[in-house]
Amino acid sequence: MITVEGLTKKYGTVLAVDDVSFTASPGRVTGFLGPNGAGKSTTMRIMVGLTRATSGTVTVSGRQFSDLPNPGLEVGVLLDASAQHAGRTGREILTLAQRYMGLPRHTVEDMLEVVSLTPDEASRRVGEYSLGMRQRLGIATALIGDPEVLILDEPANGLDPAGIRWMRDLLRGYADRGGTVLLSSHLLHEIEVIADDIVMIGLGRIVSRGTKTELLQAAGTIVRATNMPALGMALHERGLVASPTGDGAVRTDADAALVGQVALDAGIALTELRAAEGAGLEEMFLELTSASQREGPPATRPEAAVA
Ligand SMILES: Nc1ncnc2c1ncn2[C@@H]1O[C@H](COP(=O)(O)OP(=O)(O)OP(=O)(O)O)[C@@H](O)[C@H]1O
């Protein structure tokens, strides 16, 4: 379990993390989602004691990271796969972790197998590794102490589609065995596929959080009619906000039953009526983080916690 309470980090005048609170629970994969510069890495660095918080607390399994006697046995961390010593081989890096944590020697070969690094690759210097190979080695280092909690910053970076599938299955299995996984990404689809719970952050603030199911339900309804202007008018008259989806339909926050009733009352024939699901989550992500999108206009920050 990871518990973040009122976490704030200022770098001079930059408010990188602004009063962030959330939990990541055992048995679940929690996706930490936000655009570039949202504050994900800073939050994770504070979690593992690499950056000092201005205020607020983070506990892992009830304790601060700095109070853990042998942290690698309790928390597996992958923050920057490129930070590994370029002159050492993959096997040497894992062996150092194994000795440092006081683990049996066979764990090194076990982990190489888990992350599918071949004996030949394990004997090569990390400086010659591709980014995907470095990520695999980083995940092996995070897992070697068999910790209960994993904190992974953009772990899918550099992995090919098969590698992403492999990582997804690995983390799923880890969570299903009771582990706590927190992983960050600026890619909605990645988080949507892998996470049970989602925490969205923008400009250092939590803009939404909840289970994926809740967020998908909260994503609204897609509706299409032969007479779209009449449908727009009918929804408007009932106080329902509808926004164009870009392909001729509209999305509204109302549930499908209400939208269907509104259309029936107005005598409008619908050609499509369905839960917005993934498309809606993407729209919500863009809406919720619009204040922090470099491409978007400045706006007041929304707060849309659903859990
Ligand atoms: N050491 C630092 N000194 C000053 N500002 C910093 C420092 N580290 C991060 N920041 C600022 O804090 C904010 C949040 O950065 P952070 O790296 O946490 O975002 P992120 O969500 O991880 O982004 P990305 O997806 O691009 O990795 C940014 O405005 C960044 O410029």
Automatic annotation (TrEMBL):
Keyword DNA repair annotated: no
Entry superkingdom: Bacteria
Keywords per UniProt: ATP-binding, Nucleotide-binding, Transport
Start and end residues of each ABC transporter domain: 2-228
Pfam families reported for this sequence: ABC_tran
A GO molecular-function descriptor: ATP binding
Residue intervals passing through the bilayer: none
Protein name: ABC transporter ATP-binding protein
